[in-house]
Amino acid sequence: MSALALAAAAVTYVPVGRPLRGVVVSPSLVFTFAILLCWDLGPAIAVQALAVTVIAVRARQRIRHAVLSGARYAVAFGAAYLVLLIGEPDPFQGGSLADLASDTIAVALAALAFTVVYGLAVLLTAPDALPSSGSLRYRLAALRDPPRTSPR
Question: What is the enclosing helix (H) or strand (E) of 126?
């Protein structure tokens, strides 16, 4: 799984000709989420940190942006892990329909928790999206439509 996550990070689409801005969703997340499900929180965060490093090198990101991105993923994986602890999915035990349904719900809620927490982390930590004042609507619009500047 780790090799697949890193291979997916290596082929993540990186826009050409401009610095990487905003959020990049890499296919590596699929594999690191599987690592979370099968091997726990620590290995998932470690592998995603390596994937973020691969993407940051390819995109020529500044170190602080890569660290911030890794921290966002770590917090989001932590939230998903908490949901998994509560739901206790165990796909390898019990084959009843009720067990399958409860496992599916737990994993779906963990994925939802990951998405919501990651989105909030981006919203709250995006350097260009958070002016010193402004409504939440303005902040969301700034994330969607970042200001355009001429290249130097």
Answer: none
Encoded tokens for 32: 């690191």
Radius of gyration of the chain (CA): 17
| Model pTM score | 0.78
Q: What is the pLDDT of residues 119-148, one digit of tens each?
A: 999 888 876 554 555 566 666 666 665 555
Q: For residue 113, which amino acid is it?
A: A
Token pair, residue 134, equals 């402004």
Helix %, strand %, coil % for the chain, to 5? 70, 0, 30
The DSSP code sequence of 31-62 is HHHHHHHHH-HHHHHHHHHHHHHHHHHHHT--
Structure tokens at 13: 């689409």
